[in-house]
Amino acid sequence: MSEPVTIQSTDYWIKVVEMLQQNWALIEAVKPEGVCVYFISDTSGVFDQMFFADEIAAREALVRNGFKRCADDLRLQSFLRPPPTPFHWSADPNGPIYSSGRFWRS
């Protein structure tokens, strides 16, 4: 069993990466770093994380990288459901895809 990850936020962000696959993100305040964006699979596995100075910087970065805030899109809410808690660490077969910079625009 993989290690659990406790995330309080429920303000989901989503990026549809291909047919029937989404990457989810939650922004969580952490001290002293600022905020952490946790990237989560449809199966509740946290596969990557990135730190930002504040929530504004995190939101701007998510938008720049194709994520949408779920609460702002009623159409997405009508057919996609966020991954349920509890969350757990789960390595992506491609490694840390966002924090590595391979699939992330700064």
Describe this structure in words.
The longest helix is centred in the middle third of the chain and has 10 residues, at 55-64. With 106 residues, this protein is an alpha+beta fold. The protein is globular, with a radius of gyration of 13 Å. Strands 1-7-5-4-3-2-6 form a seven-stranded mixed beta sheet. 15% of the residues lie in helices and 36% in strands. The chain has one domain.
Number of domains: 1
Mean pLDDT figure:
93
Helix content: 10-25%
Helix segment tally: 2
Radius of gyration, in Å, reads: 13 Å
In terms of quaternary structure, the protein is single chain
Distance between the ends: 34 Å
User: What general form does the structure show?
Assistant: globular
Please list the strands of the largest sheet in the order they lie side by side.
Answer: 1-7-5-4-3-2-6
